[in-house]
Design goal:
Elements: H1 6-21, H2 30-59, E1 63-67, H3 77-83, H4 87-96, H5 101-105, H6 117-132, E2 136-141, E3 149-153, E4 156-160, E5 173-184, E6 187-192, E7 198-203, E8 206-218, E9 225-235, H7 241-245, H8 249-252, H9 254-262, H10 273-299, H11 308-311, E10 312-317, H12 324-335, H13 340-350, E11 351-354, E12 365-367, H14 368-374, H15 376-396, H16 401-407, E13 410-411, E14 414-416, H17 417-424, E15 428-430, H18 433-443, H19 445-450, E16 455-457, H20 464-470, H21 473-483, H22 504-529, E17 538-543, H23 552-568, E18 577-582, H24 590-607, E19 616-620, H25 626-635, E20 638-641, H26 653-659, E21 663-666, H27 672-679, E22 685-686, H28 691-700, H29 705-711, H30 713-720, H31 736-743, H32 756-775, H33 777-789, H34 796-808
Parallel strand pairs: 1-2, 1-10, 2-9, 10-11, 11-15, 15-16, 17-18, 17-20, 18-19, 20-21, 21-22
Antiparallel strand pairs: 3-4, 5-8, 6-7, 8-9, 12-14, 13-14
Helix pairs in contact: 1-2, 1-4, 3-20, 6-34, 10-12, 12-13, 12-15, 14-15, 22-25, 22-33, 23-24, 23-30, 29-30
Length: 820
């Protein structure tokens, strides 16, 4: 960024309002002011963005293409200003003309390009890549409506389109010059060439064009601006007049309909065949376009593709982009004319795979008939990869059919994408140390035995620039005051707080900051829900994607248990508690949606019961996303990280809460294990079974939740309240499915499969320790400060540097202002 000139910046905003809306500043709406300010900020970014691309064009550094179905970016305006180190200057300039930067920031929609931790991790990684100065492209889809915007109507989740592009998005740039054809369906005809090799000719297919939109990813104070490419789909022919005139009205617009459908929604409901087909098409669409873009860029400077691995690496973020393996092979063989062996050598040196799940059922699989019908040529390549891979397995393990059953890519009528990724990828990494060990010893044991050199761990991280510098400016100033500058790019500097954690003055200052952040969130809650919460209560927070293994259900059962205790003993000594939930459930996930309904119904009963004197409040924050998450993390006292041990790959919400001085109550699962090692047992609350105990129960099939139900009166009572009308206005069936979840045991779906009842008593006892500890304000403040002090390991900068050192082998680029 050039030196900030307040006068020029103000004039540009004024000119933008005039030229974009034919208004002056006084007449412009807040939305119009946001667009004008954002455009001016994009203009500030542009010189560095151009200069970064010029350096990459000139130096041809090895570049990572990060392939991900999701990028949960959050609002860009404030984050860009933080990374440009221009936030204070822009704020001051706006105040001079009577504008408030915070108000303007609130006008920006969260780009609906992701949903959960997978997408937020991808966004943090891009931020870190740019801030560390590494050349990178994120590659994803320009979803028109995201997954959905969540509304809560009478306690139920209702999904409505998230129309984030309604007013245009000022930080994106359409790049029509980057347009690539992507084909679906049809059939493949083979022709023998004169040299004896085969040509594979794809015919009678449907095609769409993938058109690039670029978003800038601004590095922190280093002039580097990387790029997120999100692909939009456009028909090759918008409308066939010939088909229309012949009476084939549907055929006249079928390419247009296909293009529109491809980019409408993130994760379409795949409970039906059409949903499965659309998901597969989406994955292939953005992967094919991204690989075509990478190869075209490489070929500008190189005639031979044999050096591609020295210049390009494709990181597959989970199994969604795994079709990249076969698509790269297709392009190298069918388009570039390489032999199978040449193409395979290049491919296996270019693709790497990050696994994000332990659970075998979550590893993506496609019915062969769908895969072959939609991607006929790609399927042929997968079939050949599988044939050769099975021969390798047979050679390594003669006569061992169990190995083939476990490891084959095509088996039992399915294409197993994780197996394809591991067979082809030169690196396979887990995202927390425990997760990686479980992959090696349990989930992917056979692959680890065959390819031990491929497996490695890269514990996830988060960017402190968004989740501290931007999300919690009061605490950011506190950290700078006691640790000095530089923590924005070296989070280990917060360790200087360890020496201050016992200081009563520092503790008081920290707790005042926490209280201010709680007041900010309480105001938001009141505005959005009408619920008034006590800022001096414990803010006990559980926000994340809603899934049974994340055990939001255990949390709300505990709330019901506490309410029962208060009703039985109205005068009991009780530390007031505000339970805050936020989560989206997948549209077709019945138990998850019923859990949301239960949380809201419990909230309705408890919040309106005057007899408990407001000692418990329950809040469900609608449409949980990055922008409201920043305020939630800053305000939290207690962070709920209560997944079933062995099920959470890593978690990153746990790190964001830690960064903001919340104390974790959690199982020894995912990255909680490493957090425990960093911060110490006295500054976390650990409960429940270990991963090995859970795995043992699953292996031996000897868990009997019915025995707990019959022998623990507290468990019996809260489960019976699911079906006795207590929280359902007398409707005994509303929560019957949740009750059955605990007690209806079936071979294909064992009762309480995520061991809520097994851990429930331990959870209750540990929550009692939380309440007792909170009474000691000095001890609590010290532990909260220690969490901030010991969070350094969990910066995504550290994670990315490990990817660079161990997997990608990139070199930093230097962008100098002298270029412009």
């Amino acid at each position: 960024m050039k030196a900030f000139n307040k006068k020029i910046f103000i004039k540009q905003i004024s000119d933008n309002v005039k030229n974009m809306y034919r208004k002056n500043l006084e007449e412009a709406s807040q939305e119009e002011l946001f667009q004008a300010v954002a455009d001016a900020v994009k203009n500030m970014i542009m010189d560095d963005w151009i200069a970064t691309q010029q350096v990459m064009e000139k130096d041809e550094p090895k570049t990572v293409y990060y392939l991900s179905m999701e990028f949960l970016l959050g609002r860009a305006l404030g984050n860009n200003l933080i990374n440009m180190t221009a936030y204070a200057q822009v704020k001051e300039a706006l105040e001079e003309i009577g504008l408030d930067l915070n108000t303007i920031e609130q006008q920006e929609p969260d780009p609906a390009l992701g949903n959960g931790g997978l997408g937020r991790l991808a966004a943090c990684f891009l931020d870190s890549l740019a801030s560390l100065g590494y050349p990178a492209y994120g590659c994803g889809i320009r979803y028109r409506y995201g997954m959905f915007k969540q509304q809560i109507v009478e306690g139920f989740q209702v999904e409505v389109p998230d129309n984030w592009l309604k007013n245009g998005y000022p930080f994106e740039m359409k790049r029509p010059e980057y347009c690539y054809e992507v084909r679906f369906g049809g059939h493949v005809r083979m022709e023998m060439r004169e040299d004896g090799n085969m040509d594979f000719i794809h015919e009678d297919y449907q095609a769409v064009n993938a058109v690039a939109y670029d978003l800038p990813i601004v590095g922190y104070n280093n002039h580097v601006v990387d790029t997120l490419i999100i692909w939009d789909a456009q028909p090759e022919m918008e409308f066939s007049l010939t088909s229309f005139n012949e009476g084939h009205y549907h055929k006249a617009v079928e390419e247009s309909n296909l293009a529109r459908t491809l980019v409408e929604v993130l994760y379409p409901n795949d409970e039906h065949i059409q949903g499965k087909e659309l998901r597969l098409k989406q994955q292939y669409f953005f992967v094919s376009a991204s690989i075509q873009r990478a190869i075209a860029k490489y070929k500008k400077h190189h005639r031979s593709l044999k050096q591609l691995p020295k210049k390009v690496v494709f990181q597959m973020n989970d199994t969604h982009p795994t079709v990249a393996v076969a698509e790269l092979m297709r392009i190298l063989i069918d388009v570039e004319g390489l032999s199978w062996d040449e193409a395979w050598k290049i491919t296996t040196q270019c693709v790497a795979y990050t696994n994000h799940t332990i659970m075998a059922e979550a590893l993506e699989k496609w019915p062969i008939d769908i895969f072959e019908r939609i991607l006929p040529r790609v399927y042929q390549i997968v079939d050949e990869i599988n044939r050769r891979f099975v021969l390798d397995i047979m050679d390594r393990y003669p006569g061992n059919e169990d190995k083939i059953r476990s490891m084959a890519i095509l088996y039992d009528g399915q294409v197993r994408m994780a197996n394809l990724a591991i067979a082809a990828g030169f690196s396979v990494n887990g995202v927390a140390r425990l997760h990686t060990e479980i992959l090696k010893n349990e989930s992917l044991k056979d692959f680890y035995e065959m390819f031990p050199e491929k497996f490695n761990n890269k514990t996830n991280g988060i960017t402190q620039r968004r989740f501290l510098a931007h999300g919690n400016p009061l605490l950011a100033n506190f950290v700078t005051k006691y640790c000095g500058k530089g923590w924005e790019t070296d989070l280990q500097k917060t360790r200087k707080l360890i020496a201050k954690a016992d200081d009563p003055k520092v503790q008081k200052e920290f707790m005042e900051i926490k209280r201010e952040n709680k007041k900010r969130l309480a105001k938001y809650i009141l505005e959005k829900t009408g619920i008034e919460v006590n800022v001096d209560s414990i803010f006990d927070v559980h926000v994340k994607r809603l899934h049974e293994y994340k055990r939001q259900l255990m949390n709300i059962l505990h709330v019901m248990y506490l309410y029962n205790r208060l009703k039985d003993n109205p005068d009991m000594d009780f530390v007031p508690r505000t339970f805050i939930f936020g989560a989206k459930a997948a549209a077709g996930y019945r138990n998850a949606k019923n859990t949301i309904k239960l949380i809201n119904n419990v909230a309705d009963v408890i919040n309106h019961d005057a007899s408990i004197g407001g000692k418990i409040k329950v809040v469900f924050i609608e449409d949980y996303k990055v922008s409201n998450a920043e305020w939630i993390y800053a305000a939290a006292d207690v962070s709920e990280q209560i997944s079933t041990a062995s099920k959470e790959a890593s978690g990153t919400g746990n790190m964001k809460f830690m960064l903001n001085g919340a104390l974790t109550i959690g199982t020894m699962d995912g990255a909680n294990v490493e957090m425990f090692e960093e911060v110490g047992e006295e500054n976390m609350f650990i409960f429940g079974m270990s991963a090995q105990e859970v795995i043992g129960f699953e292996r031996n099939h000897n868990y009997r939740p019915g025995d707990i139900y019959n022998n623990d009166p507290d468990v019996n009572r809260v489960l019976n309240q699911l079906i006795d009308g207590t929280y359902s206005h007398g409707d005994y069936e509303l929560f019957r499915s949740l009750y059955n979840y605990f007690l209806n045991d079936r071979p294909d779906n064992p009762a309480d499969r995520y061991f809520i009842l097994a851990d429930f008593r331990s959870y209750i006892q540990t929550q009692e320790k939380v309440a007792a500890y909170y009474r000691n304000r000095s001890a609590w403040a010290k532990s909260a400060i220690m969490n901030v002090a010991c969070v350094g390991k969990f910066s995504s900068d550290r994670t990315i540097q490990e990817y660079v050192d161990d997997i990608w082998h990139l070199e930093k680029i230097k962008v100098r202002t002298s270029l412009f």
